[in-house]
Amino acid sequence: MITNFARRRGEFHVMPTRKSEYGTALSESRTMEDDDWKIRLGFVIHDCARLRRIVIDQYFAPLNVTRSQAWVLAHLSPDDGLPQSALAEQMGLGKVALGGLVDRVEANGMVERRPDPKDRRVKRVYLTDEGRKVVTEMRKRTLEASVGILDEVSMKDLRTTVTTMNKIKHNLRKMVE
């Protein structure tokens, strides 16, 4: 069955059609239905990401940290003391863009740069005590937001979704390399 997309209440729904754009009758095709689901996935991912950003921004507002700054802290949390160039690569940012971002986070007292003991040209970025407190609070607030975000989603569905999204992410990375 060939379908069109209709947007209602912020969601995309697959709507069946009986004729092509030229007015000719169309036969039902499993392949075309599969194609529609593949296209629909992109819309759903985009909408979920956009809405999640809005919710997380609301939960993080009392911390006085922007989403970009939170992203720096989140990347440093498991791997504190990364060289600034490695942090830029992990985050998918250019060195200059990350440099400005780290400047702002450093000005807020959440990170500090120190020279690498083996190569003084390399600057490593470390969380401060304040930065670690903010990371702990970010984690707490993210988990609080997740209660509402994942309402009525089973752990089985969540695991399946994360596994599938990681496969898609892997495929996308291969395509951009």
The termini sit apart by 36 Å
In DSSP terms (H or I, runs of 4 or more residues), the helix count works out at 6
Total strand segments = 5
Class of secondary structure makeup: alpha+beta
CATH homology superfamily name of the largest domain: Winged helix-like DNA-binding domain superfamily/Winged helix DNA-binding domain
Tell me the count of domains.
2
The chain-level mean pLDDT equals 86
How much helical structure, as a percent, in the residues? 55-70%
Name of the CATH architecture of the largest domain: Orthogonal Bundle
CATH class of the largest domain: Mainly Alpha
Strand order of the largest sheet: 3-5-4
Strand portion: 5-15%
Structure description:
By secondary structure, the protein is α+β, with helices and mostly antiparallel strands. The chain has two domains: 1-63, no CATH class; 65-162, Arc Repressor Mutant, subunit A (Orthogonal Bundle), CATH 1.10.10.10. It is built from six helices and five strands; from the N terminus they run ββααβααββαα. The strands form two sheets. The chain has a three-stranded antiparallel beta sheet. It has a two-stranded antiparallel ribbon with strand order 1-2. The radius of gyration is 22 Å and the shape is globular. The two termini are 36 Å apart. Mean pLDDT is 86; it is low at 1-8, 14-20 and 22-28. This is MarR family transcriptional regulator. Pfam families: MarR_2 (PF12802). It comes from Mangrovimicrobium sediminis. InterPro entries: HTH_MarR-typ, WH-like_DNA-bd_sf, WH_DNA-bd_sf.
